Every structure is written in structure tokens, then in C-alpha cells.
Amino acid sequence: MRILLWAEFQKLRRSNIIMFTIFSTILIAVIVLISGVTTVSEEQLTTAMPGWYMTITQVWATMFVLPAVIALLGSYMICREEQDDTLKSLRLIPVNETKLTTAKMIVALVFSMLVYLLLFMITFVTEAILHFSDLSMAMFSEFLKMYLLEGIGVFFAVSPIIAIVPYLKKSYWLALLLAEIYSFAGLFMSMSNTLKTFYPITAIFGVSGYYETTIQNYICSLGILILCGCISAILLKNLNHRQRKKANE
After folding, report:
1. What is the distance in angstroms between the CA of the first residue and the CA of the last residue of the chain?
2. Three-class SS of residue 107?
3. Angle made by CA atoms 107, 109, 113, in degrees to the nearest 5
4. How far, rounded to the nearest angstrom, does the alpha carbon of residue 216 sit from its chain's CA centroid?
5. Read out DSSP for 20-66?
6. Distance between CA atoms of 140 and 134, rounded to whole angstroms?
7. Nearest CA to 182 among 156, 211, 208, 146?
8. What is the C-alpha to C-alpha distance for residues 210 and 58, in angstroms, rounded to an integer?
9. CA-to-CA distance for 75 and 232, rounded, in angstroms?
10. Spatial distance between the Cα atoms of 32 and 189, rounded to a whole number of angstroms
11. What share of the chain is helix, strand, coil (3-state, %, to 5)?
């Protein structure tokens, strides 16, 4: 497994999708910062409020950008060999396809966490520049935990999309479109207390601590994200079975 993980990381290092992911993360941070430099009153800017930037950026990123980017990254890793016509050559090597797929999904999870960690670093440094004296270790720890949990949550929320795209026999860029629609719908789901608990994208905020929620709703939101992971695991297992059967024919 360690060798498979290393190999997947090496493949991604040569991919332009990594640069696209970093660019997207920086871009959403810049857009939120610019939007924050708007007048609330004649004397106060929203960016003058400690914690505002770190709070709003994670919401905008999760609602509009990062789920689509993570879905694209994961689908690229799953679909790459087949779309580049290297899957047949790969099967000549005695590699367990289930382990290979598992390695790809683990790498996608790690990158999801790293993307949110990058976003956290950008927002925290900006907060420190704007009002260093108002920051505290408790605020640092709370937002770091929130961002990392959102990184994990986003991966699980979009994992069914990552698993479905190979079935559609389309380009992995389709994952970007599907996940963008999926995440944007979270804006409407958040208007209902019930829907925001059970809709995967908004369930992320309940699990991460952005939403104040009851223990019961927290468990339901966590269960929904775990269910998404289980669905993707079943889909990917069936995909490997179909590909193996097709190869044997």
C-alpha cells in the first residue's frame, strides 16, 4: 500500500490539476477578502471584525469552489488510466485493483485536507496582518480544527460523484460540473434546519462546528457523510469488478 500511495503522489506531482487546485484556493481567498473591503457603515469595514475573514472564507469555498475541485481531483485519479489507455498495461503488473483504488481515494482525502489547510494558512495570516492583537491560541485551534474537519467532510460528501463519473464513461471534468451544481444547491438546503442536517454539503458545517447544532443533528450529519463514503466504496468496488470482468473477456 505504501508503494501505491507513493506512486499516486508522484503522478499528481506531474499533473496540472494540482496547480489548478492551488490557484482556485488562492482565488476564492482573494475574492472573499475583496468582498470584505465593503462598507458596513461609514466607519467600519467587515474585515475589521476579528475572525470574520476566516469564518466567511470557509463558507464561500465550500459552497462554490472546493467540492468541485476535490471531485475533479478524485475523478482524475480514478479515470486517468482508462482515459489515457494505460489501464491494460497496468493489469500486466500484479497489482491488486482494490488496493490501487483505495490508495487513490486515500490520496484524494489527504489532498482535500491539504487544500483546506492551505486555505486556513492564507486566511489566518491575513487575519494576523489585519489585527494580530485580537488573535489567540484558542481561536487558532478552533479554526484549524474547523477547516480540517471541513476538508475531510468535503471529500466524503463528493466521494459518490468521484465514483459515479467512471460509470458515465465521460471526461473526469464532468465531476467539476456535477460537484459545482451539488455544492451550490447547498445554499437552498441551508434555508431549512432539516435539510441542512441531511444534505451532505451543509452537513459538513454541522460536523465541523460552523453551525450550532444539537447532538442528534450532529450524529445525523455525521451519519450522512459516512453513508456517502460507503456508497462510493460500493460503486468503486463494482467498477473494479466490471473492469476485471471486461478484461477477462
Report:
1. 28
2. helix
3. 115
4. 24
5. HHHHHHHHHHHHHHHHHSSBSSSS-BGGGSTTHHHHHHHHHIIIIIH
6. 11
7. 156
8. 9
9. 12
10. 22
11. 85, 0, 15
CA 79, CA 99: separation in Å to the nearest integer?
15
Is 140 exposed, middle or buried, given 0-12, 13-18 or 19+ CB atoms closer than 10 A? middle
- Work out the number of other CB atoms within 10 angstroms of the CB of residue 22: 14
- 185 SS3 class: coil
The residue behind cell 486556513 is: 120
- What SS3 class is residue 170? coil
pLDDT tens track for 39-75: 444 444 456 677 888 999 999 999 999 999 999 998 8
For residue 45, which phi and psi values (nearest 5 degrees)?
A: -105, 150
**How far is it, in rounded angstroms, from Cα 161 to Cα 228?**
9
pLDDT one-digit tens code per residue, 99-140:
778 888 999 999 999 999 999 999 999 999 888 888 889 999
**Structure-block grid coordinates of residue 108:** 484524494
Whole-model pTM: value is 0.87
Provide CB contacts within 8 A for 91, sequence distance 6+: 97, 247
- 63 neighbors 31 (Cβ within 8 angstroms): no
| d(C-alpha 126, C-alpha 213), whole Å | 29
CA dist list (Å): 121 to 26, 125, 214, 237: 11, 6, 29, 36
> Per the structure block, which three cell numbers stand in for 133?
492583537
